[in-house]
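Q: Could you fold this chain for me?
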Amino acid sequence: MTTHRIGLVMHGVTGRMGMNQHLIRSIVAIRKQGGVTLSNGERLMPDPILVGRNEEKIAALAKAHGIERWTTDLDAALANKDDTIFFDAATTQARPELLKRAVKAGKHIYCEKPVATNLDEAMDLYRAAQAAGVKHGVVQDKLWLPGLKKLQLLNEAGFFGKMLSVRGEFGYWVFEGDLQPAQRPSWNYREEDGGGIILDMLCHWRYVIDNVFGKVKSVSCLGATHIPARWDEKGNPYEATADDAAYATFELENGVIVQMNSSWCVRVRRDDLVTFQVDGTHGSAVAGLTDCYTQSRVNTPKPVWNPDLRNTHDFMADWSAVPETSANDNAFKIQWELFLKHVWGEGDFRWNLLEGAKGVQLVELGLKSWRERRWVDVTPLEA
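A: Sure. Below is the predicted structure, expressed as structure tokens.
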């Protein structure tokens, strides 16, 4: 069996997301399984070089996961013609300029989102990649979550009838950092460092809504900084200047109304850290990260409102689980495999920098809606 090497420069993999999801659970996992299988039965083996500023940290990370190549010299890594892909999972603020350097070096681009902090930079980056003729992709991992895939299956099967609305709840309590260490980095809560839940999550909700429920037509968004003071990684107090909660409503082109609450200041009492309830004329479904439950029109109970009596009906028992019909792999790994094959010349990859720019567009419009306290229309982006 023939195995082909494909070299990639991985930048920003010492952080939580870059290390866990992209390096360990994607690239390292792909290497352990013997590479990506191509349509002709041959294999594609990623050969990464890890790039970081901290020599000790990047060397230890490479050694821990059996990766031979690492460097602190980004320019040298970009100059190596044997590595054709550049991946970035570092800070959003530095991403546009960093990716343009990689594009100028002739690298294909794969990156985390948001691709930029504003739409002008996002579109400029997309056009630069298009002009250079390089292939490009943006991480849109939630599309491969088992729960959302089940929702897509139900939609394609016509289970909902006419879809009416979607109610999404995302979030959990992120500790302030005084009594217990925070689970997220402190920069997430400083606007000047690229923090804010609207910038973080509306990029996700754009591709989820567009691909699963319908195209976004307009948005109304209210942000909040519920917790104004937090403690950083060294135990020092700091002012939280970024929004830590967002309450957004989206009108879709097909008439569906989507409500998404996103918060780092909410304690979980639901099936999962994120849930989507879809209601339609013929049935409803509730999906989390992995599971999905349905209730059809003919199985819908008839509740009786009586506030004087305790309601003893078990409403949860009226829902049926959608069965597992296939094995589920890591969502980040699945998209990585698709992008690697795309760069090799096998298969299309529609989750590109333009799709990433759509997420940034929704962020800008959400912030505009909050600032001006009104609905804002979403216009199509000109490629």
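A (continued): The first helix runs from residue 16 to 32.
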